[in-house]
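Note on ligand handling. Small-molecule inputs were canonicalized before submission; formal charges were left as drawn, and no protonation-state enumeration was performed. Where a ligand contained multiple stereocentres, the stereochemistry in the source SMILES was retained. For flavin-adenine dinucleotide, this procedure yielded the string shown in the input block below.
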Amino acid sequence: MSRILIVAEHDGAKLNPSTAKCVTCAKQVAGASIDVLVLAADGASVASQAAALAGVGKVLLADNPANAEPLAAVLAPQVAKLAAGYTHVFGPSTTYGKDLMPRVAALLEVGQLSDVMAVDGPHAFKRPIYAGNAVLSVEAPQDAVLVATVRVASFEAAATGGSAAVEKVDAGVPLPTHTRFVSRSGATTGRPDLQSAARVVAGGRALGSADGFKIIYSLADKLGAAVGASRAAVDAGYVPNDLQVGQTGKIIAPELYVAIGISGAIQHMTGIKDARTIVAINKDGEAPIFEVADVGLVGDLFAIVPEFEKALG
Ligand SMILES: Cc1cc2nc3c(=O)[nH]c(=O)nc-3n(C[C@H](O)[C@H](O)[C@H](O)COP(=O)(O)OP(=O)(O)OC[C@H]3O[C@@H](n4cnc5c(N)ncnc54)[C@H](O)[C@@H]3O)c2cc1C
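Structure output:
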């Protein structure tokens, strides 16, 4: 029988929705038992959120002051040790999981399966290749632990309603000292997180400047949405690169994606394939974004967006 360990992503207080999506993926492995590992400094609250996910059998809570910050070098040896007895170790294909899971795989001396988008069997999965233009069916070896990252855009979050037991664990492994936390710097915008937001408003090169981008922020705030951008807007310095959506940015699956002044290059579309409703505003009626848009508005964004915002009241 498959025994799956999911490494939880969290910020010390809140469980990231990516964990619930990994649970949904794991549930598609027929007959699997699913445990969640929370590595934290004081993770009781996060562990109880994980325990409430339907389908989780047990939550392992590894409290350790060294786990206060998500340093992959520190977390990976603990995950590798605590993975003993499991057939699969899953993490989300987010920045956190992409940082941590390859180290776990290396310590367990196996290759990593990245970006699982569908489950065909306990060792058979699908994953996207060529910027999402083709789908690869992968058969993983059955005689080794399978370390994988889960493409969170491909799975709905598992529902709550579970009541799994929380068990305190200690990996008891020496932790490396070559990597230490110095400081964290990042913009605190008060807006939803781009990767897990239900609504995203994104702007492209057409915004023309950082100043021009202000109408994107304004519309996003009206909609309670996260802000995203094309690579052209990032490269031009209108917005920081953590807002980039696409092949070399974030892969997202919001309920609503509003693409403003974005042409719809294939590398951008890779990032929004799983968005439920796509609204595009572009002055070029032939722009490729309109091929995937559910709602398209052809015209000058600097006229349409303020009108759109006004209509929202
Ligand atoms: C290896 C590789 C990886 C890449 N990764 C990514 C990625 O992760 N994400 C990504 O986004 N791109 C990525 N790109 C770049 C991608 O190919 C495109 O260059 C980029 O997405 C274009 O951004 P854009 O749509 O903002 O700009 P453009 O393609 O220049 O489009 C601007 C659009 O705005 C419209 N427009 C102009 N003025 C107005 C106006 N006033 N009102 C309304 N519409 C207007 C135009 O009609 C046009 O359609 C990658 C490229 C490569 C080679």
